[in-house]
């Protein structure tokens, strides 16, 4: 299971004072040195954290891979086609949310998403859809030729009881297995942290986790190298790694 680090929160901190520090590009480059397998950024329509300068510099300088989280809007699709990330992950985007609140409804937005995937594929950009662990949503993602899905793990991470957590984990297990059978790549993310990773690694069919807040927050206390290496150590506890 690979580990991609989302660096949006570093840009949030920089933007809080319209400052140049902490620079998310430098942070991403250092994270690569400490062993992450890729970098994730979400270029939001309101540019509240990552901006185009960050994105273009990362495109030039990263040596692992760049996953661009994005809304399916014309402006951002054009930027993605120009920047050529290794993966474009389509997420729902609401201006008033603090962070992405859940998966995109593929069934309700099938025509928009089909066209978006076609446009990105024409430019040879592979596409992932951020969705709930739901079989019908996965079937729809496969039908419109998505390359990957990213399973929303927020309900697992925020479960209020152990029973609810294990129930959600089972949904994710079934969903990821189903997606693999359809030939989809399977990523997962949202709310994954140093506590819940020990349960999450039990799921066999996840290719990659996308983690941001917990690792960036920990790096404030222990430094980026330790924060990244601690997460990698947890992921490596997975059976058969
Ligand atoms: N995956 C997606 C699609 C997201 O929107 C986010 C949040 O930016 C993450 C993963 C990472 O979530 P977290 O910051 O809670 O680790």
Strand order of the largest sheet: 1-2-3-4-5-6-7-8
Provide the structure class.
alpha/beta
Mean pLDDT: 95
Strand content: 15-25%
- Span from first to last CA? 8 Å
Describe this protein's structure.
The structure is a single chain. This protein is an alpha/beta fold. It has a single domain (2-235), classed as TIM Barrel. Helices cover 46% and strands 16% of the residues. It has helices at residues 8-16, 24-33, 52-61, 74-83, 110-122, 135-143, 154-157, 162-181, 197-200, 213-222, 224-235; strands at residues 2-6, 38-42, 66-70, 87-90, 127-131, 148-152, 185-189, 208-211. The protein has an eight-stranded parallel beta barrel with strand order 1-2-3-4-5-6-7-8, surrounded by seven helices.
List the SSEs and their pairings.
Blueprint: E1 2-6, H1 8-16, H2 24-33, E2 38-42, H3 52-61, E3 66-70, H4 74-83, E4 87-90, H5 110-122, E5 127-131, H6 135-143, E6 148-152, H7 154-157, H8 162-181, E7 185-189, H9 197-200, E8 208-211, H10 213-222, H11 224-235
Parallel strand pairs: 1-2, 1-8, 2-3, 3-4, 4-5, 5-6, 6-7, 7-8
Helix pairs in contact: 2-3, 6-8, 10-11
Pyridoxine-5'-phosphate (PXP) binds next to strand 8 and helix 10.
Give a quick summary of the entry.
With 241 residues, this protein is α/β, with parallel strands linked by helices.
Task: List the keywords.
globular, 8-stranded parallel barrel, TIM Barrel, alpha/beta, 16% strand, 241 residues, binds pyridoxine-5'-phosphate, 11 helices
């Amino acid at each position: 299971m690979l580990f991609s680090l989302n660096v949006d929160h570093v840009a949030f901190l920089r933007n809080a004072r319209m400052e140049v520090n902490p620079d998310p590009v430098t942070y991403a480059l250092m994270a690569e040195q400490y062993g992450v397998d890729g970098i994730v950024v979400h270029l939001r329509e309101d540019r509240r954290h990552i901006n185009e300068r960050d994105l273009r510099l990362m495109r030039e300088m990263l040596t692992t891979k760049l996953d661009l989280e994005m809304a399916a809007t014309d402006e951002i699709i054009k930027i993605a086609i120009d920047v050529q990330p290794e993966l474009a992950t389509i997420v729902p985007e609401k201006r008033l949310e603090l962070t992405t609140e859940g998966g995109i409804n593929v069934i309700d937005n099938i025509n928009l998403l089909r066209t978006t995937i076609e446009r990105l594929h024409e430019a040879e950009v592979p596409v992932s859809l951020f969705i709930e662990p739901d079989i019908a949503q996965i079937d729809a993602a496969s039908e419109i030729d998505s390359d990957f899905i990213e399973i929303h793990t927020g309900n697992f991470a925020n479960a209020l009881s152990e029973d609810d957590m294990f129930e959600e984990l089972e949904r994710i297990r079934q969903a990821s297995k189903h997606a693999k059978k359809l030939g989809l790549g399977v990523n997962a993310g949202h709310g994954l942290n140093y506590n819940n990773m020990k349960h999450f690694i039990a799921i066999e069919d996840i290719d990659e986790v996308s983690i941001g807040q917990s690792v960036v927050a920990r790096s404030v206390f222990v430094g980026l190298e330790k924060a990244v290496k601690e997460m990698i150590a947890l992921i490596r506890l997975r059976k058969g790694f």
